[in-house]
Design the sequence.
């Protein structure tokens, strides 16, 4: 019962689960393209970590972008517990978000295209939930360490917030911050919807297009 209670607020420090010192076993290669999941990635490849609800469907959104996406992987970030399990993350007592690591070639796949996919693939105004998926692990988040990329992400947020407001949506609740350590999720979660095409995907966008505005360029530009 502990691991499946739905929590919609971050845990206090005294309730954080202790975790473990060693990483969880996971897949060695991407199920779709066969590339090494953990790298090393080629020179010129950049990474971004995104959270937009259940990571099964979120990961598929990004590997389906095709050329320019080197590899994707699901995992846990922006929390406290070291090397958490899926059940621990779902308990709401690790502080982690279900996220997707996207390794991409910016010369082929502009960062603005990733941002557009991120915003249009979910509803970033819902706080600690996506639709019927409720809990801290379903919050909207963009996690970056590069200051220039972070500025682009913030500009895209502001542009999309204006577009959403014009359609009657509330304010964006997306967190944009450093991810902290990224922990790869268990093997069976990696590329889950490629292995299980009929599997659950709870993602649903707002239907509002993301304008490619200040500091954000589209793939066609």
Sequence:
């Amino acid at each position: 019962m502990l691991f499946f209670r739905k929590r919609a607020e971050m845990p206090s420090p005294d309730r954080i689960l202790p975790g473990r010192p060693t990483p969880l076993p996971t897949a060695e290669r991407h199920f779709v393209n066969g590339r090494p999941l953990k790298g090393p990635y080629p020179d010129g490849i950049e990474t971004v970590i995104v959270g937009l609800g259940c990571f099964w469907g979120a990961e598929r959104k990004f590997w389906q972008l095709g050329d320019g996406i080197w590899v994707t992987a699901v995992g846990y970030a922006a929390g406290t517990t070291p090397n958490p399990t899926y059940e621990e993350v779902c308990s709401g007592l690790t502080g982690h978000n279900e996220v997707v690591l996207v390794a991409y070639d910016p010369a082929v796949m502009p960062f603005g295209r990733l941002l557009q996919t991120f915003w249009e693939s979910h509803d970033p105004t819902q706080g600690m939930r996506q639709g019927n998926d409720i809990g801290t692990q379903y919050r909207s988040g963009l996690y970056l360490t590069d200051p220039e990329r972070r500025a682009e992400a913030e500009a895209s947020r502001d542009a999309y917030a204006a577009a959403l407001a014009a359609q009657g949506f509330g304010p964006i609740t997306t967190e944009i911050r450093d991810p902290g350590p990224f922990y790869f999720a268990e093997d069976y979660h990696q590329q889950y919807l490629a292995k299980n095409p009929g599997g659950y995907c709870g993602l649903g966008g707002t239907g509002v297009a993301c304008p490619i505005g200040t500091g954000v360029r589209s793939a066609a530009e």
User: Anything to note?
Assistant: The chain has five helices and eight strands. Residues 155 and 214 are 6 Å apart (CA to CA).
